[in-house]
Design goal:
Layout: E1 46-68, E2 75-101, E3 104-122, E4 124-125, E5 128-129, E6 167-174, E7 178-186, H1 188-191, E8 207-215, E9 244-245, E10 251-261, E11 267-280, H2 304-307, E12 324-338, E13 343-356, E14 359-361, H3 366-369, E15 373-375, E16 378-392, E17 395-406, E18 409-410, E19 454-456, E20 459-471
Parallel strand pairs: 6-9
Antiparallel strand pairs: 1-2, 1-19, 1-20, 2-3, 3-6, 3-7, 4-5, 7-8, 8-10, 10-11, 11-12, 12-13, 13-16, 14-15, 16-17, 17-20, 18-19
Length: 472
């Protein structure tokens, strides 16, 4: 999977340098190189790229469970295995970069998701399925709480499975495109070409680039998780391919970023910083704008039929993507470089650290539950090894491998409600006949209450990608 910091970046020609310890002109590493225009020997630069990416994530989903310690008789909450989840993504990304002026570029990205498939099933302990003892399958708690007159949480009553223990969903199609601009106010190759009597050639500086990307929401049907849930259930071992669904999520994404690099002989270290700031499109009603859990109150607690209509909860129950911060640190190692034939081979090694804020998102259990869930903040760390080759001035290729991990975090932690009358309390009806306006209509007593939450354990992820680039 491409790094978040490099998804909207172009990778044009690196300027020439001498190999190893020979005298060389320093040029920016790939992530901080910017397309050119208006140069005497290069009046216009246009770069066309096509990248294929395959990624896979495997994780365990556990659940808080109140148990009694047989040795002490004391009670405590422990995490028990419930589900295993696998997500596989295959994507093509088409990238166009046009130089506007010296070290100033405009770039465009159009992602085509060939398939984003999520499969889940009951977890296993010592090789045996946990289904017979699964608290999800043998649930007796009502989604609205246990205060109802009909004893909705009767432990001796019929089980109320919370989600299908085995299921599969698929999404595919054109994803939201990105347009962006990048400018290198300081580029070490240009600085070194200044008059030596003013700027001595022995004095070198780092390249600095700043950019801004905007991902715009496409028109079309929104990604609607209510189509999944028990409708996505499959029997263990089923091979039926699910129908592909939309992956449009109706949010404007703003991404300011910056980066630095400095060439030292065969090494070209760099680091980048990026922030991702989402702004969700809110609609006037059902199927208008980003998805809102209140579009389907039948999938929520009983207060939803009342509270989803209140002004106090307007735009408070829908898609709320995480804010994201990303840091990349790496270096290129130039192995072969021949200025006359404009051929080059380099190795790229870098690490990424990404932070995700809390949010109501398309989580690892969204498809199983048929609704968005509120997730805790977490981080992702990846290591990347890539190879870059330039067979000619106009033909480039890259391959990259990635291995990483997502930190453990709760994926069902919806706030219980809010104080509307200022008395310092939140009144809950919890299934009673009189419905409280202060209770969050998306709060699920089965999964959001402390002691019953679902947790994504540390997630292993890996990916490979390949890029072919034509440069003019």
């Amino acid at each position: 999977m491409p790094s978040a910091l490099r998804s909207a970046r172009s990778f044009p020609l690196l300027t020439l340098a001498l190999l190893m310890t020979c005298s060389a002109t320093a040029h920016a590493a790939h992530p901080t190189d910017v397309a050119d225009a208006m140069d005497e020997d290069h009046p216009l630069e246009v770069d066309l790229e096509a990248t294929y990416t395959h990624t896979r994530r495997d994780l365990r989903i556990t659940r808080e469970n109140l148990q009694t310690d047989p040795s002490t008789g004391g009670k405590g909450v422990i995490l028990v295995d419930e589900l295993k989840n696998t997500r596989v993504d295959d994507q093509m990304n088409f990238h166009l970069t046009v130089g506007l002026y010296h070290d100033l570029e405009l770039h465009f990205d159009v992602p085509l998701v060939l398939g984003s498939t999520q499969t889940w099933g009951y977890g296993e302990v010592n090789g045996a399925s946990v289904q017979p003892v699964s608290t999800l399958d043998n649930n007796h708690i009502d989604i609205s709480g246990c205060a109802g007159a009909s004893n909705p949480c009767d432990p001796n009553g019929a089980a109320k499975p919370i989600l299908p223990g085995n299921g599969q969903t698929k999404r595919a199609g054109v994803a939201d495109p990105t347009v962006g601009i990048a400018w290198a106010p300081i580029h070490e190759s240009r600085e070194e070409r200044l008059p030596p009597d003013i700027f001595p050639t022995a004095h070198t500086i780092s390249s600095w680039v700043i950019g801004f990307d905007y991902t715009l929401p496409l028109p079309g049907d929104v990604d609607d998780p209510s189509k999944f849930g028990f409708a996505a259930a499959t029997t263990p071992g089923a091979t039926t391919t699910p129908t592909s669904h939309s992956l449009l999520r109706k949010a404007h994404i703003f991404s300011p970023w910056t980066g630095f690099s400095k060439r030292f002989k065969i090494m070209d270290p760099y680091f980048l910083l990026r922030a991702t700031l989402p702004l969700v499109m809110r609609g006037a009603g059902v199927n208008d704008g980003a998805y809102d859990n209140c579009w389907h109150p039948e999938n929520l607690a009983d207060v939803a039929t009342q509270n989803c209509l209140l002004a106090a909860w307007k735009n408070q129950t829908g898609y709320q993507p995480s804010y994201v911060g990303n840091f990349t640190l790496g270096t290129e190692f130039v192995a072969i470089e021949t200025p006359r034939s404009e051929q080059k081979f380099a190795v790229d090694v870098h690490i990424d650290a990404t932070w995700f804020s809390q949010g109501r998102t398309y989580s690892e259990v969204t498809d199983a539950l048929g609704k968005l869930t509120y997730t805790d903040e977490h981080a992702q760390f990846t290591g990347n090894l890539g190879f870059y080759g330039r067979a000619a001035r106009w033909l480039h290729f890259r391959v990259n491998g990635q291995v990483g991990v997502d930190t453990a975090h709760f994926i069902t932690s919806e706030p219980i409600g809010k104080d509307l009358n200022g008395d310092g309390k939140i009144l809950l009806s919890a299934g009673a006949a009189t419905k409280s306006q202060e209770q969050n209509p998306t709060y699920d007593f089965r999964l959001d209450q402390v002691g019953r939450r679902l947790r994504a354990e540390a997630t292993l992820l890996w990916g490979i990608s390949g890029t072919l680039s034509l440069n003019f």
